[in-house]
Every structure is written in C-alpha cells, then in structure tokens.
C-alpha cells in the first residue's frame, strides 16, 4: 500500500498577514512624523529662549557694572533715572539694532524692555528691576511701552543696588 504524499502548507504570507503588517508599519510611521514636528517646534523654542537669555544676561551685566558716579549704562545707554520702560531691539544673533527708544529695523527679532521701579540717578537701596525679552520684535513695535503681544518671552524681576 502506498502512502499519499504529505501536504505542505503553502509558502509565504497570506494577504491578511501582509495587510496587518502594513497597518502596523503605517501607524508607526504616522507616530514618528507627528513626533518629528513636535521635536522641531521644541528645538526652535529652545534656540529662541537661549538667545533671549543671552541678551537678558548681557543687559543685566551692563546695568550691574554702572559706576556710582554715572547715570547711564556703558554698553546700552540705559538710564537709571527713567521710570518708563526702556526698549532696545536685537537681531537673532544678539546684536543691538539701534539705541534706546529707536524703532525696530528689518533685522530686529528680539525686543528687550527694561523697567526700574523708583528709578533715580543715585540710590543706595535696592530698586526693583524688570528685564523682559520678547520675540518677534515686530509683533509689538512701539518702543517705550511694555509689550502686549509676543510668541515667546523670558523675564527676570530682580533688585538693582548701586554702591
């Protein structure tokens, strides 16, 4: 008696298995593309904040280095006797595009606003000082006022003491 030949299962994948694998792969690719956009947005925000903190740090250092016999800062000409906000515009690279109160230029990206509460040319007690960097500069182009519209900002409220 002869035995019948053994049946082999068909080789390869079925259409159902291929469809499921393609669905899983498409879902994973969609998730990766969604995370890519989030990562790019996060990176742009980080770059903007890093540059803004650099600007804020240099302006604060300039204010702290004013000698007791002077009333304005050396690098940015910020007056210690003005109580209204003083505005300086900066490029993306952190370079000033003009002086105090000048309008933003085409290169202006950051807006630095400095306010000294109870400002006077000579003070021996600490004065509350607000330093605010916002961007983009053209969103609120009126110098001498606190900005109202910005997509990004960093702010420090500190005390300034002159000896």
UniProtKB/TrEMBL annotation:
The chain crosses the membrane at residues 12-36. Keywords: Membrane, Transmembrane, Transmembrane helix. This is Verru_Chthon cassette protein B.
